[in-house]
């Protein structure tokens, strides 16, 4: 069965980040490993593939021919885009439509209720289930007892139990050769990268922390599952030799959760001599409470030049509301950042949430002051969003509050604004924080030092305008 896996573009065009689609990359690998070679990946976020839903069937026909199965990754804010894309593909090809990804993991029912063109939703990881599903569909066997899937049966929606992959090394890396690696933007996220050719890699799945604004534990489970350092190194070596990759972004939720994992990974990178060929960053952040001088030194010596840390608030009261667990006070945040700065030159971006429910404008002022007082190099003030999968979302749902998921984006406070706050005030606070942080000569100079090319200047202007 010809299978096409699609990463959708957000149709209103507000996509500004574009990393390699490793989730569907892993699925393509698992299909190939099971002998299903007729598989392709189409990323509609790539400039050359941006196309209206009406024109998508033509593009698909031209590039791949008629698919039997089409599978979409869906984030909450691409719900409506997938609805439209799937309608045109289903009508044209009469194909089976599958949906997976973050929104599917959290809200399978919602998708099956509201998108009539979707046949099966993956409410769990796909590597083990997808090949088995296709095998059964080919043979006309029942799929009812397959884990990780949801589907309609008579007028019921059936949501099967989730099963997590125990041994991540079983699927050694995404099927990179089906991803158009060189067509991705040079700076896939943020404003800067150190080198030009960047690729995304993930070494662990899962997060045990209870932060109320985050859906990660629900998406990949509370238990941390790890790839072996050797397995990760093999993937990086492949990316370097085949695609000339010079910089790796690790997207783990908690790469430093287990000291043994991060230390062994750093040592394996050095042993393979990769620290001389690549630099790397932890773009999804590391937990400050899991850092110590030894980890920081090992990371730097293995090529780490940057990581993000979730600080979230400068108010201890708000940090408690967010259930930041072992890291609930501003004093320990400062101590940990000082450790990073004392023992390494790793650049640190501190991320804050503005407009969190229960946080007053004064609390957010406190966050700005806190950011200015910390020895961090960059800052992000994101606006609060109650993403499906998070406790904050569930609370609002219980209160019967309707949230427009298409507008979910922590760069603009559109989908939801907490009581007592307003859009204008939140936006102003974000701008004020950014301005006061970056206007300082030391910070500005540090940023200017990072600019190496005209393309970076163009990128900064484009991102600022967006
Ligand atoms: C990397 C990442 C990104 C990347 C892109 C990810 C990608 N796939 O290319 C970038 C930086 C672009 C990004 C952007 C955003 N992200 Co993001 N991101 C992540 C992160 C850190 C890791 C994702 C990942 O690679 N996981 C590893 C792979 C193996 O897992 P996976 O992608 O889920 O895929 C598996 C299954 O879901 C399933 N599956 C996935 N797709 C499909 C498709 C089919 C057909 C099938 C059968 C199965 C299937 O099988 C896969 C293999 O097991 C997650 C955190 C997390 N723990 O998941 C957040 C996360 C997914 N992002 C999140 C958010 C909020 C965003 C943004 C909306 C942020 C914003 N601006 O406001 C944007 C917008 C995204 C968009 N519309 O394009 C939220 C999702 C919330 C939600 N309900 O949608 C998460 C969970 C973070 C969080 N802690 O809350 N993100």
CATH domain class of the largest domain: Alpha Beta
Strand content: 15-25%
CATH architecture of the largest domain, please?
Alpha-Beta Horseshoe
Spatial order of the strands forming the largest sheet:
2-1-3-4-5-6-7
Largest sheet, if any?
7 strands, mixed
Helical content class? 25-40%
Which small compounds were modeled alongside the protein? cobalamin
Shape: globular
Strand runs, count: 15
Low-confidence stretches: none
As for the number of domains, it is 2
Task: Please identify which CATH superfamily of the largest domain we are dealing with.
Answer: tm_1862 like domain
First-residue to last-residue Cα separation: 41 Å
Going by helix content, strand content and strand pairing, the class is: alpha/beta
Report the CATH topology name of the largest domain: pyruvate-formate lyase- activating enzyme
Round the mean pLDDT to the nearest integer and report it.
Answer: 93
Over all CA atoms, what is the radius of gyration?
Answer: 22 Å
Blueprint of the fold:
Layout: E1 3-7, H1 22-33, E2 39-43, H2 56-64, E3 69-73, H3 79-93, E4 96-100, H4 102-106, H5 108-114, E5 120-122, H6 129-139, E6 149-153, E7 156-159, E8 198-201, E9 204-205, H7 216-220, E10 225-226, H8 229-243, E11 247-250, H9 259-271, E12 279-286, H10 293-301, E13 304-312, H11 316-321, H12 330-343, E14 347-354, H13 361-373, E15 378-383, H14 391-398, H15 423-438, H16 441-450, H17 454-465
Parallel strand pairs: 1-2, 1-3, 3-4, 4-5, 8-11, 11-12, 12-13, 13-14, 14-15
Antiparallel strand pairs: 5-6, 6-7, 9-10
Helix pairs in contact: 8-9, 9-10, 13-15
Bound molecules: cobalamin.
